[in-house]
Design brief:
5 strands; alpha/beta; Rossmann fold
């Protein structure tokens, strides 16, 4: 039995920091029952195996480009990008629920204050992750994902844009997307997230108004409530604690499932 673990938390809470250190720890220990992977990795693996109009060598170079730069390519890998989109369309149309899921996710990203280009990238990443999740097949008992489908709608943009992703749609989305077997919640105080986000090179999501609007929830509580309702275990880690302590707590927790 595979145990799929999703890391969830606010922007600048320390999710990526935790995931990267966990990844290093696993590689050093050569642990053979746990891996850190992304759904994108599984999608690209299947795409490379599938015979398409693009030869394998070109697809391999394009896969490296995707992992290190971005998915869309108007010039260098234009043909490969179109080929990947065809692969995605042909596979996603087999899933009868996908159109409804995509509609709900579009509703969510339309509450953001992101540019049209960024929203487009989010949708493309969603397509890839969703198909990657469906094609997912692992020999490892524990699979840790840094961004799953609960995380994709965790932040509540209403505090910034005053646009709502209604609770009914949140629940519909959560019922339809692949659910994790265990959630690692990086639980970090919003003021710490705000302070950290100002140091990020890509700008920051928060502003001081968010603190003042404390009556408006800055994350979608439905994600946690839904997990509790579905009896999905939640491991809460303090994002302000030392990384070594949080890694230790994580391994102690999953050992309970390794019996």
């Amino acid at each position: 039995m595979n145990l799929n673990i999703e890391i969830v938390g606010l922007p600048a809470s320390g999710k990526t920091h935790f995931y990267n250190h966990l990844n290093q720890k696993i590689k050093k220990s050569k642990n053979n029952h746990i891996q850190t992977r992304s759904f994108k990795d599984f999608l690209l693996f299947e795409y490379l195996k599938k015979k398409t109009k693009i030869n394998l060598i070109k697809k391999m170079f394009y896969s490296i480009y995707i992992k290190n730069v971005q998915i869309k390519s108007n010039f260098l890998f234009n043909k490969e990008y179109k080929d990947l989109n065809l692969f995605l369309r042909n596979n996603l149309k087999k899933n009868k629920r996908y159109d409804k899921i995509l509609y709900l996710y579009k509703n969510y990203i339309n509450t953001t204050n992101y540019t049209i280009e960024r929203k487009s990238r989010m949708l493309k990443n969603f397509e890839i992750d969703f198909l990657g999740a469906k094609l997912f097949n692992s020999k490892f008992k524990f699979n840790v994902f840094d961004e799953g489908f609960f995380q994709k709608i965790f932040f509540n943009f209403e505090s910034i844009t005053n646009l709502k992703f209604k609770l009914k749609k949140q629940i519909s989305y959560l019922k339809l997307v692949p659910n994790p077997d265990l959630i690692v919640l990086i639980d970090t105080n919003i003021k710490i997230c705000l302070k950290r986000s100002k140091l990020r090179a890509d700008g920051f999501l928060y502003d001081n108004k968010l603190i003042k609007k404390s009556k408006i929830m800055y994350f979608n509580k439905s994600v946690i409530n839904f997990a509790k309702f579905k009896k999905i275990p939640i491991l809460r880690l303090n994002g302000a604690s030392s990384i070594s302590k949080n890694i230790e707590i994580f391994f102690k927790t999953i050992e309970k499932y390794n019996k």
